[in-house]
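The instructor's notes for this session suggest beginning with a concrete chain rather than abstract definitions. Hand out the sequence below and ask the class to guess, before any prediction is shown, which regions might be ordered.
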Amino acid sequence: MRITCVALVLILVTFPSVVFPQTNVANADAAIRQTALDYIEGYYEGNAERMERAVHPELAKRIVRTNPQNNQSRLDQMSAMTLVLATRRGGGKDIPKERQQKDVTILDIYENAASVKIVASDWIDYLQMAKFNGRWVIVNVLWELKPNPGK
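After discussion, reveal the predicted structure:
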C-alpha cells in the first residue's frame, strides 16, 4: 500500500512537468505562426495594422545584394516604419491572389527566441522572433529573392 501511494505521488508530481511544457510549446507555436501570418498576410492585404502588430519597432529587415559585374556585395536595410508604410501604400496588393504564397515553417523555438522561414511569392524571409512583453514579435528579417525563371 505504501509503495502504491509513493508511486502515485511520484506520477502526480511528474505529470505536470510532462504536460505543461508541451502545452507551452503548442501555445508558442500557434502565437509564432500567427505573428508570421500577420506579417506576410498583412503585406499582401495592405493591412498596416497587422504588419505593425507583427514587428518590433526596432526591426531590421535586410538583404544582401551582389553586383554581378564586380562581385561586390552591399547590405540593404529596411526599418519597421518603412515596412509598415510600404504595407500601408499597398505594394503587396499588386501580387495576384493565386501568387500570394505564404508557407510558414517554424525552424526552432528556444525560450523567448524563435526562427521562422516564410516562402512568399517572389522571395524567402528568414525571421528571428522574440517574446517581448509577453507577445511574439519579429526583430530581424534576412530575405532573398527567388530566382527569376525568365532569366
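Then share the key points. The chain is about 40% helix and 40% strand. The beta strands are 55-66, 73-79, 102-110, 113-120, 123-132, 135-145.
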